[in-house]
Amino acid sequence: MKATTFDQRFDRGDDVSEFLDLSAAHRPGYESQTVTIDFPEWMLNGLDREARRLGVSRDALVKVWLAERLEQLPLTS
To answer: Is the pTM of this model over 0.85?
Structure first.
């Protein structure tokens, strides 16, 4: 299929997923990277308490909280 035909179908709202290889898809800038952070025990206890209360892992809680905080920062170029 030509790109122009694909674009026209997409713009019409047609389902074009059959023409895509999603097995190789990724979101640039969203690749995971492992980091090590040392927290004092009182912080870990608090994180674990809140994570249990919400029914999520400690890692998930930290990621959500960091994302929320970073979204509040002004955009820079």
So the answer is: no
